[in-house]
Amino acid sequence: MIPILTVTRADREATACTLIGVKAYPDVDAYIQQSDQWPEAMTALRPILLGCGLTEEIKWGKPCYSHDGKNIVILQEMKEFLALMFFKGALLNDPASVLEEQGRTRGRLVVFGSPRSRMWTGWLTA
After folding, report:
1. For residue 26, which of 9, 18, 58, 114 sits 20 to 30 Å off, Cα-Cα?
2. Rama region for 69: left / alpha / beta (φ>0; ψ in -120 to 50; rest)
3. pLDDT tens across 22-62, in order?
4. Predicted structure pTM score
5. Where are the domains of the chain?
6. CA-to-CA distance for 60 and 77, rounded, in angstroms?
7. Separation between Cα atoms, residue 58 and residue 56, nearest integer Å
8. Residue by residue, what is the 3-state secondary structure of 2-49?
């Protein structure tokens, strides 16, 4: 008798991520727990993002927040800073000039924790 192998969608996604070199995390909690760079900042940002009615999941190996199936923002850990990257940030009204350009794309980001940042991580705990 040949054993039957059942593969779930989560198994396929985890395998695909592992094959392309992206670490797979089951959820945002697991992602934050493994972080040694910005766990406090991500923990502080999370209720703000969820309070806006966004749905969170891991996409491209990072915490990603969406609304009605459309990606809105992703958290990206860099060596020197944590970036809150808006997929269509160029379309956002930014009178305080908080958003920084992300190359030639329409994306914009808010940088936390870097001396070049306009947004210091300290405000998250205030």
Report:
1. 114
2. left
3. 677 889 999 999 998 889 989 999 999 999 999 999 999 99
4. 0.70
5. 9-125
6. 13
7. 7
8. CCCCCCCHHHHHHHHHHHCCCCCCCCHHHHHHHCCCCHHHHHHHHHHH
